[in-house]
Amino acid sequence: MTAKTVDRIRNQQNKKTLWHKLLSKGHYIFLFLVAIVTIMIVSKNSPLYILNNWVDLNAFLTMGKGWAHGLIPYKDLFEQKGPALFFIFRIAACLSNSYFGVFLVEIVFFFVTLVLIFKIARFFLDIKSSLIMCFISTVFLTMGPYFSNGGSAEELAFPAIFYTLYLIFKFQHYGFRLNPPSYILAGVSLGYLFWSKYTMIGSWIGFFVALAICLLILKDLKQLIQAVVYSLFGFSAINFLVFAYFYVNQALNDLYFAYFYSNIKLYPTAQLPTVLSKLVNAVMIFVAQFKDKPLLLVFLIIGIFVTLFDKKIFQSNYTVFLYLSAYFLLILTTFYGGKTFIYYYLILMPFACVPILSLFVRINQDHMSFLRLGLLSLACAVLSMGMNGNISYSKIFPQNAGVSLNNTDSEPAQVRFAKIIRQEKNPTLLNYGHLDMGLYQAADILPINYFFHRVNIPHNHLPEMMDEQNRVVNKKQVMFVVCRTPYGKKEEDIPKNIRDNYELVAKQDQYSGMDLTFWLYKVKGQSTP
Hints:
Elements: H1 3-24, H2 26-42, H3 55-68, H4 83-95, H5 100-122, H6 127-141, H7 158-173, H8 180-194, H9 202-217, H10 221-248, H11 252-266, H12 275-288, H13 294-308, H14 317-335, H15 349-353, H16 355-360, H17 370-388, H18 413-421, E1 429-431, H19 439-443, H20 463-474, E2 480-486, H21 496-501, E3 502-511, E4 515-523
Parallel strand pairs: 1-2
Antiparallel strand pairs: 2-4, 3-4
Helix pairs in contact: 2-5, 2-6, 2-17, 3-4, 4-5, 5-6, 5-7, 6-17, 7-8, 7-14, 8-10, 9-10, 9-14, 12-14
């Protein structure tokens, strides 16, 4: 046998080994494709949509883009969410100057979410059935109106929440023990949630408390010490990065004021006298949503409690205790403040996926061909499209209400206004009196003032916010001002100081959560402010 023949055989063997390795990991490739297709359909950040008109998402992106261009969060721009979330949007802004960067970030996070669901399912099911569980879970995780428009803090928390569930079942599977890397990642997950939106940390608080009690009952002090040390290491690593950055940039006080003080003291919450009354109120808020949402009731209440009695899934009382602690603590921290928006429920959807396991462990898994698997994934994509509902505002339906209420405009106000703004040299902009409407993003403009939009804090709690915005208007410090009113209002309803100092150059009626009129004003008497 010649040397050339030997080399050829080796090359063929190497190619064959590589092909087998690729096939063995094919389910991950499949899950990645599912993540792409799902986010493409349900998120308004995808190329299927002209823009994402959700005010929260646009505020996150303005903060991320500002950070990417040298502005310091909380010191140069005011917002109330956490620095970890804004860092994710900083990455998105670096990936693309449009919503496409957010779309890419969403794909990565949703792929990680599907991988964790797959790993949880593999404790109980074969590969094909585990993939099916992933497909069905996408329907619940993207269900409208909870998913909203894409890019929420809750959506980007899915991996951290599912990792809680993964560790609960891993703890059960491996004889009530976890390795150090698992605890380190648990601490990192807690840190990420704490510095994104701290009301989302409930599942991890419940997990750690319940885990400590379980290990004490099991008299496994060594495991308990490992859990404390390694989890604190992971959590402290995130804390160190946050504190180091804001210390170096002399913005620790700004971080405290914007992220903690304004949320705890200034943000409107239920005025209840005791901790107990707030806890009871949190449960009442949680339950109230089920009155006209029977599907939610089935999977978040009935399904979960039925599953708890399933010995094939919850094989130990320790597992039940860990699961219930994580679930109920997440409910309490989510609604403890007494104020809620519909998308708050999205953070609970990972728990709605668990009852699916009880169904699949009882289904004959031997007759699921890859053709049926593909057809089922397609069916779930169609179901997600219908239950999410965002597709009706996509480019597929160009004359939708999100573009224009009266079909006279072919572009959303943000796109149309941005074209007007970009005709000027070095334009500046103020988003007046409301949350970020998306014009900073559409016109590719960074804010020049601290309170670049009006957050949901009453004027008497934070008068500096509107005082600054009015000062900017009165002194003509920006070239353009954008504001909005409920549909049907006249120009006389626009604040007088805007009408005195700026002239109306465009208006448009369109749907954005409700029927609205958007108004664009340009400064009077000078070409630049």
